[in-house]
Amino acid sequence: MASANLPLRLRSNIRDLVTSPTSAVAIRTASLGKTIGYPISLDPEWPILWTALQPYYDDPATFIPGIARVLVSWCDVFTAWLEAEENEDGVERLLEEMRPVVKVVVEILTTGTRPSTAWLADKQLFVIGLPKAALPPAGTIHAGLSSDFLSLFTPAPSSSTHAPVSTIASEDPEWADVSIEPQIRTPAALPRQSIAAQESVSDRLPDLALIPRPEELLRRPPYWLLVRQDTDNRVVVQGSHAPSLECMEAYLKRWCRGNPHRVDRVGSLQFPFF
Fold this sequence. Notes:
Elements: H1 8-19, H2 24-36, E1 40-42, H3 46-53, H4 63-83, H5 88-97, E2 102-108, E3 116-120, E4 125-130, H6 138-152, E5 167-168, E6 178-179, H7 195-202, H8 214-217, E7 226-231, E8 234-238, H9 242-255
Parallel strand pairs: 1-2, 2-4
Antiparallel strand pairs: 3-4, 5-6, 7-8
Helix pairs in contact: 1-4, 2-4, 4-6
């Protein structure tokens, strides 16, 4: 829910990164709705989120893109969980409890340092919790949400590790000693996402609009690359993964700008990719 009380930059980011039909969030929620068979209702209370989390974002321009990354990751993890064959029982249980509309709310966590999710059966809605802290890297967000989904519909293990033992003994010859052998129950293994689902997520390149700003991105580089300055206005970037280089090329073309205050008309930087 956008509000006129929000800064103009935030309202613009909400429009471009969340509500726009071409945004990554809108595309992922639409795809998730087709997978589960119900439309997704997602309308965060942006003024409340901004008021609570503003102190943890030095640059307001990173606020909406950060939350958008969480929403995209949540949709990807949820879709992978739905498509995994080993989660059939959990999916059936969810569909039985779910209304014809999948309602998702975004709230503020009181504890924790990473986003988390939960299913509230009594209210029939999903909750995405945001920490009162700077968001962790995308890999941490994805792994944490995956762990949450694995435990959402997993039955709690029994407090007893084996069946009770009963022994009937009597001096009456017609009675025989009857004993029930203990049944050792091994804990059920946690369901794992299908390999195909994991590969589909890992092979997907990030959306350019959701990649952090250059100065923020350089604090935690996602790839191993070789960058060298060849001449005064030529920077060479070398890497082993061609799709990643293509993504970076588009990213640099978007953010690199000439300095309008320079009067010596130095040529723009060149970025050959190999």
